[in-house]
Amino acid sequence: MKSKLFFFLLALAPLISCQQIMDNYWDRKAEENYVSPYKGTYAGSFAGNDSGSLKIEVSKSDNVTITRHSSISNSNEIYYDGLIGASFNGSPSPATGFKLLGNLSSDNNTYSGTWTQGNFSGTWTLIKQ
Questions:
Q1: What is the β-pairing status of strands 87-88 and 99-102?
Q2: pTM, to two decimals
């Protein structure tokens, strides 16, 4: 009796494993087909202790490229962040510590939030292009 049960369970093992493989396959397909609802280019400005222009590009997988030009230091910077839902991850620029706070949730294609950079801070506004 015990040997029949053992062989029966042994015969079921590949079926369970195949189901897991299929589940993983469909999960990967869903990730590949995902397109962020925030995908696109956003342009605008930031103001406060520093000011300048701001451009945000959101990829289909919620990766964010932030390009900013500081009017005060007359410098350009590009760094990368991500979205969690509609909100920025809040990762600071490795070079300057500039960090966007806020989200891309709006009813009218105008978006706003705050930014920090050390002791400096201010607001930002973007419009989806």
A1: unpaired
A2: 0.77
